[in-house]
Design brief:
Radius of gyration: 21 Å
CATH superfamily of the largest domain: UbiA prenyltransferase
Largest sheet: none
Number of strands: 0
Number of domains: 2
Number of helices: 15
Shape: globular
Low-confidence stretches: none
CATH topology of the largest domain: Tetracycline Repressor, domain 2
Distance between the termini: 63 Å
Mean pLDDT: 85
CATH architecture of the largest domain: Orthogonal Bundle
Helix content: 55-70%
Order of helices and strands: HHHHHHHHHHHHHHH
Amino acid sequence: MKNRSIVANSFNILISLRPTQWLKNLVVFAAIIFSRELFIPSTFLTVFYTFLIFSAASSSMYLVNDLVDKNKDQLHFSKRNRPIASGNLSTRSVLSVALILIVTSLAAASYISNYLFFILLVYLAIQLLYTFWLKNVIVLDVLAIALAFMLRIFAGSVVVLTPLSAWLILTTMMLALFLGIGKRRSELTLLSGIAASHRKTLLSYPVQLLDGLAFMMATATLITYSLFTFNSPETIQREVFASFFPRTLASPKMLMVTIPIVVYGIFRYLYLIFEKSEGESPEKVFLTDRPLFASVILWLVSVIFILYFFST
């Protein structure tokens, strides 16, 4: 019985760490992907360690957040089944694991880079502010989510001293805001009558405002990504490119080819938000919606092919 209890407790802790949310931390690879350093072993390993550090740190914050929101989550149609909300994990166990993850991630970050340690410290501070205050303040709640994404992309850059494109930074910010607003819009629809008891800010957000912001951020994401591809370095010599294509199409900015894929992905996500109300959990939407998943994989494969196998 004791062994069975230990296994059950370990499984509940693993669920509470929300491993599917670690997908967000993959953004740390953005800098080395677009700087064509992805396949350099030392660079890749450093960024991979950064990914693990942010996964540990973010999981610690999920534990704290679930503990703070325990009573509210019990009113939610799906969150009430989480181990903490359902009472399957004790407060002591949750806090102990969270503290271990925080200390471990900070220690590992300081070992890799002082810059990473500082960024992680700021990240944890923002997440704690979000848990205890910012998530109850209209607009600031979404901005906090976007800032957490920005810190991830900066972390992936500073650990290998790889410069970031200003347009890539803006694209990441606009995308994070789009996902955050989509999350609020879906929550407002799904929770309807119990929205106020679960999250106070949902009553402060008019539906029309969330709709307008969602379309605004979707447009901003498309514009900034398009400008990022327009301003990206040439992937192939102009003379070589012109020998294969008509002069009217002889642009070596091959990343522009990925714009239609991004357009489809954004439009698909808008459809899921407004038609199916599935934007509450972006990582779940990504993993369960086949067209969206396929578009993201196609975009990633296209980017890697263009940057690493279609350049001279």
